[in-house]
Write a structure and sequence with these properties.
By secondary structure, this protein is of the alpha/beta class. The protein contains 13 helices and 13 strands. Helix 1 packs across helix 2 and helix 6 packs across helix 8. The chain is globular, with a radius of gyration of 20 Å. The protein starts with a strand and ends with a helix. It binds glycine. The site of glycine has 6 residues, from loops.
């Protein structure tokens, strides 16, 4: 029998919190918030799309326990991680007389979580916030670990802070209304955990991945719990990414470059970029002689078998992309240290490491191969 709720602790001293994973969590969110935080005024931040599916349920639950609330809804999409939307949100908070004992609830995907989290960090120098992620990608990655940010003209997540939520509530039911492409995008981040630190989990995904994608609730829940446990352990050891946390960026150095070139216009979802980036990083691990080809082929096979892209030839419109432009994007990555780009490479599935010693010619070679469909 499935337990009703699984609780994963994130151990960060006085900033510790719990991640609750289960079904029916939104329906009882009012009771959960009241029980954990007492009587606080709630500020729900959501986006227009999520609001149509889940806001009614959340508001009804909050009303039922008599808590006061306000709602701020932003346009859906990456474009909302902007100074403009941040200012709008802060204005709404202040007009509604937010106080230090207010509680911000981020109901949405990564965009809502990143923006609401950053607004919570800077409003009155810090108001408590709760993450209620509604995409698979946000459930297994962005809602956990306290990275909050907005984008600028120069790049993604360049303005932000580490600001931990007080609680993460993951309702697996919300995945039922998510388009399949979004599920697949989140699945790429799930595979990432197996690749960077948990070989056994990758092997489990090889057997159960298709169940996760086809809506098997128990498989989804197991994958979310395992991903969150892996992430919680890494964040617990290195909250501010001075060391090991960087392995969570596996595939992201290449992936962010691909997303930047695609101009975040929906042609390439974050998880798709991560899948492409993980294959590029694996190929780089292979040509530098660190990882054997069979391991790379095994990952390639799994990603393809679930329907994730493995090289840039998957969309015709990327065929005109230029290697130099992509390399330039990589140079702008936040992970550049002393002029050297840090890459996360794999020795084998489940065993990753961070290095700045990568030959730039190999980086260009890998990107060329991806563009030509030879990864
Ligand atoms: N998404 C990477 C991290 O949270 O560190």
């Amino acid at each position: 029998m499935m337990k009703s709720e699984e609780i994963i602790p994130v151990n960060l001293g006085d900033r510790s919190y719990e991640i609750c994973v289960g079904s029916g969590i939104l329906e009882t969110i009012g009771v959960s918030l009241l029980k954990r935080f007492g009587v606080r005024k709630i500020f729900i931040v959501t986006d227009h799309e999520v609001a149509t599916h889940w806001l009614g349920l959340v508001v009804a639950s909050i009303k039922k326990v008599g808590l006061k609330y306000e709602v701020a809804s932003i346009p859906s999409g990456e474009g909302s991680k902007s100074f403009y939307q941040l200012e709008g949100l802060l204005n709404q908070f202040f007009e509604a007389r937010i106080a230090r004992d207010g509680l911000i609830v981020a109901l949405g995907g990564g965009v809502v979580g990143d923006l609401a989290g950053f607004a919570a960090a800077v409003a009155l120098r810090g108001v408590d916030f709760v993450q209620v992620p509604t995409t698979l990608l946000a459930q297994v990655d962005s809602s956990v670990g306290g990275k909050t940010a907005i984008n600028t003209a120069q790049g993604k997540n360049l303005v932000g802070s580490f600001y931990q939520p007080r609680l993460v509530l993951i309702d697996t039911d919300v995945l039922d209304t998510l388009p399949q492409r979004q599920i697949l995008s989140g699945y790429a981040e799930i595979v990432k955990y197996g690749l960077i630190k948990n070989r056994q989990f990758f092997e489990w995904l090889e057997v159960n991945g298709k169940k996760i994608l086809s809506g098997d609730t128990e498989a989804r829940r197991t994958a979310i719990v395992e991903s969150c446990k892996t992430k919680a352990a890494i964040v617990g050891d290195d909250e501010k990414e001075t060391g090991e946390r960087a392995i969570l960026n596996f595939g992201h150095t290449f992936g962010h470059a691909f997303e930047a070139e695609a101009k975040f216009n929906g042609d390439l979802l974050h998880g798709e970029a991560v899948a492409l980036g993980m294959m590029a990083a694996l190929k780089l691990s292979k040509i530098t002689g660190i990882c054997n080809g069979q391991e790379v082929d095994r990952v390639n096979f799994h990603l393809q078998s679930v329907g994730l892209p493995v090289n840039l030839s998957f969309l015709d419109k990327f065929s005109g992309w230029n290697v130099d432009a992509l390399v330039k994007h990589i140079g702008h990555d936040k992970k550049v240290l002393d002029g050297k780009i840090r890459f996360i490479l794999l020795k084998e599935i489940g065993n990753s490491f961070i290095t700045s010693e990568v030959d730039p010619n190999n980086v260009s070679a890998v990107i060329s191969q991806s563009l030509e469909g030879r990864l």
